[in-house]
Amino acid sequence: MFHQGSILLTVVVSIVASLPDPLNLAKLPEIPSITKPTPLPKTDAKIPKAPQGILKRIAVKVNRPVSLQDLERRMNRLEAVLKLDGMIQVVGDKMIASSGKEVDFAASNSTCNYVGGRIATPMNEAENSAVLEFAKKYNRYVYLGMREGPIPGKFNYLNGVPAVYTHWRKGEPSGRGTEGCVEMYTDGQWNDKACNQQRLTVCEL
């Protein structure tokens, strides 16, 4: 009896061992090990502080969340303060400002590009008057965003498009190929001038 049972058990085990894996499970991929994030490098850079006087006048608070409406309202108040202080002029969708520094044309243009704008380029009388405010404030001549084109005496904007608005002083431009830039006098009139002179930087944004 025991002998027969052993034979029967051996046969059952052999049959089970020969059967395919009923679940047919694929081998699961290994879980990748989690590594610690690389810490950011330390820096000594400091965030510049805004002038306290202006912050007080626009009542900026940073101890609560700021909504888009709050941000827009504060920006409008800041713009109003800057206009009141004569730091900017706003004409249409242009904001015109000056660094108060005198440099040559290339440096002036680079400064304006660096802050996301371009050298002041009056397109109408209102914009010309806005630039004039800085010429009078600093009592300095101002370079404008135009250069002489291939035809002597014909000036284009910096993108190559011919100027559509001008305010030349009588008899100007007179350089005829020798004075490739445009300056504004302190009365708002224009003159063609060499590009290597020191003139007030005025930008539009």
UniProtKB/TrEMBL annotation:
<keyword id="KW-0964">Secreted</keyword>
<dbReference type="InterPro" id="IPR016186">
    <property type="entry name" value="C-type_lectin-like/link_sf"/>
</dbReference>
<dbReference type="GO" id="GO:0008083">
    <property type="term" value="F:growth factor activity"/>
</dbReference>
<dbReference type="GO" id="GO:0005615">
    <property type="term" value="C:extracellular space"/>
</dbReference>
<feature type="domain" description="C-type lectin">
    <location>
        <begin position="105"/>
        <end position="204"/>
    </location>
</feature>
<feature type="signal peptide">
    <location>
        <begin position="1"/>
        <end position="17"/>
    </location>
</feature>
<dbReference type="InterPro" id="IPR051663">
    <property type="entry name" value="CLec_Tetranectin-domain"/>
</dbReference>
<dbReference type="InterPro" id="IPR001304">
    <property type="entry name" value="C-type_lectin-like"/>
</dbReference>
<dbReference type="InterPro" id="IPR018378">
    <property type="entry name" value="C-type_lectin_CS"/>
</dbReference>
<dbReference type="InterPro" id="IPR016187">
    <property type="entry name" value="CTDL_fold"/>
</dbReference>
<dbReference type="Pfam" id="PF00059">
    <property type="entry name" value="Lectin_C"/>
</dbReference>
<keyword id="KW-1015">Disulfide bond</keyword>
<dbReference type="GO" id="GO:0001503">
    <property type="term" value="P:ossification"/>
</dbReference>
<protein>
    <recommendedName>
        <fullName>C-type lectin domain-containing protein</fullName>
    </recommendedName>
</protein>
<keyword id="KW-0430">Lectin</keyword>
<dbReference type="GO" id="GO:0030246">
    <property type="term" value="F:carbohydrate binding"/>
</dbReference>
<keyword id="KW-0732">Signal</keyword>
